[in-house]
Design brief:
The complex is a heterodimer of chains A (about 525) and B (about 280).
Chain A (H helix, E strand, L loop, with lengths): L19 H13 L2 H16 L31 E3 L1 E25 L18 E7 L8 E7 L4 E5 L3 E4 L11 E8 L2 E7 L5 E8 L7 E8 L3 E2 L13 E2 L1 E15 L6 E5 L12 E4 L4 E5 L3 E3 L18 H22 L1 H8 L3 H37 L9 H29 L2 H19 L7 H10 L32 H25 L3
Antiparallel strand pairs in A: 1-17, 2-7, 2-10, 2-13, 2-14, 3-4, 3-10, 4-5, 5-6, 7-8, 8-9, 11-12, 13-16, 15-16
Helix pairs in contact in A: 1-5, 2-3, 2-5, 3-5, 3-6, 3-7, 5-6, 6-7, 6-9, 7-8
Chain B lengths: L5 H9 L7 H15 L1 H24 L11 H5 L3 H22 L1 H8 L3 H37 L16 H28 L2 H21 L4 H9 L1 H5 L15 H25 L3
Helix pairs in contact in B: 2-7, 3-5, 3-7, 5-7, 5-8, 5-9, 7-8, 8-9, 8-12, 9-10
Classes of the chains: A alpha+beta (about 525), B mainly alpha (about 280).
């Protein structure tokens, strides 16, 4: 007797895969099938661009005071926006030669433009400058190298607007004069300083690429606009200040390599009606030298400085709105699972809880990045167009910086989304988690910057240690020590370097994600 | 099937609360809900603690050794409201959306079918709670500010009056801040009734509060920036706290609080209409 073999029952359904790829796929399915989330995340991108349509400044409006007179129009050799406004007493200089002078006095004057309540200020500004300068031509923005005595920073050698090399410290007077020398050999300019005219010390050597064979060399004086630190807060801003002048006395002027028969000419580069607040200048010959009076600055033009200057960072202000939408969606991505009880099903299907959290983080981070990238690109393009149209174009930035702003903003949104997800997993309740997420990033920024109630030290500390440090990635311009400006977050300057600030946000996210993973494993769902 | 003895049923009907009708009944129900939920007390405590702590910390960072500072002592002492309001918003949002997430809203609407009455009762109870909480937080903040600021150089020796509620402007700032918190609560309640989803509602409210000042300052000091400050619920409403430099404010103190009141009224109106029109 044989009994027929009975085949054991086997379901015709294929066994589900339980790999990490499958987990990612299921989390992505969860995300894309909730219409509200998809709409919200797309809205987050749109609102980033939309806010640019209402932003934009006007010439002569920045800082609210009487400081600004026009819009900047000069670009330096490196393509950056520059201020080029000073008084220049010059002669043509051949491709080999040099100029030597002795500086015996430097004084300043400041006359505020009728701002009431103005306190008396030292008339010589810290970065008032007088000295000698070799410049490609007398057009604004042309290449130059100069060695100078400054109001309170001693001898400095500056070149091509952004370059700055410190020389011997100390100020000048009739009893302790300062000798300055610039030599030219083709494109190479070398600056020297001396206290007595016999013992010279080299301050720096720079190469001015493409310096024409006949350049202009001579004496100059400039004095940047004085600006009382602005209090740009939500309760109104205050700024006052105005143009200043510096007067320097030069003697023992010797010029080697001058064209025969040429004489000294005085030119007010930029002029009193230029973009930079200037009182104009003059020169008067003396026995073996000149007295030169000048106003203005030879320096990079930065947002927050004395000239009206749009900032690329300003075009990304919509990030804050986008961020709030992203935080809402990312938090709900986990808290709704708890509310609806779906989390129990999720954890039954994939009992490796750490993997579930990782899959969620990857999905929400990737989705946010993919939406944030085109949004940031469009925000920068639209914003710059709007700013140009309103007459206050953004100061140009190198392509690499622009790329960092776009990718960085998308990454900022993505990392913030993961942070919000982690907070959601820790707190498990929507109201608390969304509030905590917004408080950690947006509220700390608001407290540190637009509220302007904390002193600068405490505000900078907040922007260093809280997740709001991540906004550093949006800084587009350097803060130059040789330019006095309002280097505040509202103007797009942060206390940390771009990637360092971003790393602080990443550290917070890693910490929160670690805690979320730990709690997810420890607690019952 | 077990039936309650007839005598006991009669006693339930005889209880005075059973005779409560209309708004009073709704108020009683909402008060019971607020009272018996553990989170209400914790959130109100947190709002007070956070407001006072932040106010005190900010006051302690403001130093004026020379006496030539453009500081507003009352405003500095009440800085904590900027953060405390987030907790009040959380409380108000959960009063409605919390019921949606647990399904309680259906019970509530079966018991009190007049939906406008439900929202009015919620608004009244919330306002009462926030007024009391706000008064404690504001008073404690001013007290802390008075003690800390006078030690930091903001004192009569430097020409500043001691912070006192006898001063008309300070009293206005204090009362206004309490009203401000109540209006923020109503704005959040309305938004929550309109959106129903907790995360969305709290996100929208916090966005309305904090985005206006951020975008307004980024727009520089242009007319546009000023207009943004004038219409934002927080930027306009907080003008009530200013006691010095009133001329540089984007909007006058009571007018600013009026703007916030308009936001709250609009939110309640939209929330109320949607509550009536939609299925729960």
């Amino acid at each position: 007797m044989t009994t027929p073999a009975i085949a054991p029952y086997q379901s015709e359904m294929r066994t589900g895969q339980d790999g990490f790829a499958q987990l990612l796929w299921s989390e992505w399915t969860k995300f894309r099938t909730v219409r509200g989330w998809v709409v919200a995340i797309v809205l987050a991108g749109l609102v980033m661009v939309g806010i640019d349509l209402i932003s934009g400044g006007e010439c002569g409006m920045q800082n609210g005071g009487s400081l600004t007179t026009g819009c900047p129009e000069s670009l330096g050799p490196g393509g950056e926006a520059v201020t080029d406004s000073f008084f220049f007493v010059h002669q043509p200089l051949a491709s080999s030669g040099g100029i030597t002078v002795r500086l015996t006095s430097m004084t300043g004057s400041y006359s505020p433009n009728g701002s009431p309540g103005q306190q008396a200020q030292a008339p010589l500004q810290p970065w008032s400058k007088a000295g000698i300068l070799i410049k490609a031509n007398t057009r604004q923005g042309s290449a130059y190298a100069a060695i100078m005595v400054t109001g309170s920073h001693g001898v400095q050698m500056q070149y091509d607007y952004t370059g700055d090399v410190a020389g011997p410290a100390g100020s000048v007077s009739a009893t302790s004069p300062r000798w300055l020398r610039l030599t030219r050999a083709g494109d190479i300019i070398t600056g020297y300083a001396s206290a007595d005219g016999t013992h010279w010390s080299k301050v720096g050597t720079v190469t001015l690429t493409g310096l024409p064979s006949t350049a202009q060399a001579g004496l100059f004086a400039a004095s940047p606009a004085y600006s009382k630190p602005t209090n740009q807060s939500i309760t109104g801003s205050s700024a006052n200040g105005g143009p200043t002048q510096a007067t320097a006395t030069f003697d023992r002027v010797t010029l080697n390599g001058a064209s025969p028969g040429s004489t000294w000419n005085g030119t007010d580069i930029g002029g009193p009606n230029g973009s930079y607040p200037s009182q104009g200048g003059a020169y008067r010959p003396s026995a073996d030298g000149f007295t030169v009076t000048g106003s203005g600055d030879v320096a990079p033009a930065v947002p927050g400085g004395p000239t009206a200057q749009g900032s690329v960072t300003q075009t990304l202000v919509g990030t804050f709105a986008g961020l709030i939408a992203v935080i809402i969606v990312a938090t709900m991505f986990i808290t709704t699972e708890y509310r609806r009880g779906l989390i129990r099903l999720t954890l039954t299907a994939s009992p490796r809880r750490g993997h579930v959290l990782a899959a969620k983080a990857i999905v929400i981070g990737a989705v946010t990045f993919v939406v944030g990238l085109p949004a940031a690109l469009a925000a920068i393009l639209v914003g710059q167009r709007m700013m140009s149209a309103s007459g206050l174009p953004a100061a140009p930035v190198p392509a690499l910086t622009e790329l960092r702003l776009i990718v960085g903003t998308a990454a900022l949104l993505a990392v913030a989304a993961v942070l919000a997800l982690a907070i959601g997993a820790i707190l498990r309740r929507s109201a608390a988690a969304v509030t905590a997420g917004i408080a950690m990033i947006v509220l700390t920024y608001f407290f540190a910057s637009p509220l302007a109630v904390l002193p600068a030290g405490a505000a900078n500390w907040l922007l260093r240690v809280t997740p709001a440090a991540g906004f550093s990635i949006q800084q587009a311009y350097r803060a130059y020590p040789q330019v006095v400006a309002s280097y505040t977050p509202t103007n797009g300057y942060y206390p940390l370097a771009p990637w360092a600030g971003f790393a602080v946000l990443c550290a917070w996210t890693a910490l929160a994600l670690g805690l979320a993973g730990y709690l997810l494993r420890r607690r019952d769902a | 099937m077990i039936q309650a003895p007839p005598a006991q049923r009669a006693s339930i009907q005889d209880k005075p609360r059973a005779r409560l009708t209309g708004l009073r009944y709704a108020l009683h129900a909402e008060w019971t809900k607020a009272r018996t939920q553990a989170s209400t007390g914790w959130l109100l405590l947190a709002a007070i603690a956070l407001t006072v702590t932040v106010s005190a910390v900010v006051a302690s960072t403001v130093k004026c050794p020379t006496g030539h500072c453009a500081e507003d002592p009352a405003k500095i002492s009440l800085t904590g409201i900027y953060i405390g309001q987030a907790i009040i918003a959380m409380l108000a949002v959960q009063a409605v959306s919390g019921e949606y997430s647990t399904g309680m809203i259906r019970t509530t609407l079966v018991a009190i079918p007049r939906r406008g009455t439900v929202l009015a009762a919620k608004a009244a109870i919330l306002t009462g709670l926030v007024l009391v909480t706000g008064a404690i937080a504001v008073f404690a903040s001013l007290l802390a500010g008075r003690l800390i600021l006078s030690g930091n150089g903001i004192n009569p020796a430097h020409g500043y009056a001691t912070l006192s509620l006898g001063d008309g402007a300070v009293l206005r700032a204090a009362l206004g801040s309490v009203l401000y918190l109540a209006l923020i609560g109503l704005l959040s309640l309305g938004a929550s009734a309109a959106v129903r989803e907790t995360a969305m509602a709290i996100g929208i409210v916090l966005g309305l509060l904090y985005l206006f000042p951020i975008i307004g300052t980024a727009a520089g000091n242009s007319e546009l920036g000023r207009h943004i400050q004038q219409i934002g619920p927080m930027t306009a409403g907080m003008a009530i706290q200013a006691t010095t430099g009133l001329r540089s404010l984007p909007i006058a103190p009571w007018a600013g609080l009026g703007v916030l009141a308009a936001w709250s009224a609009a939110a309640l109106l939209v929330g109320g209409l949607l509550l009536r029109m939609r299925d729960a």
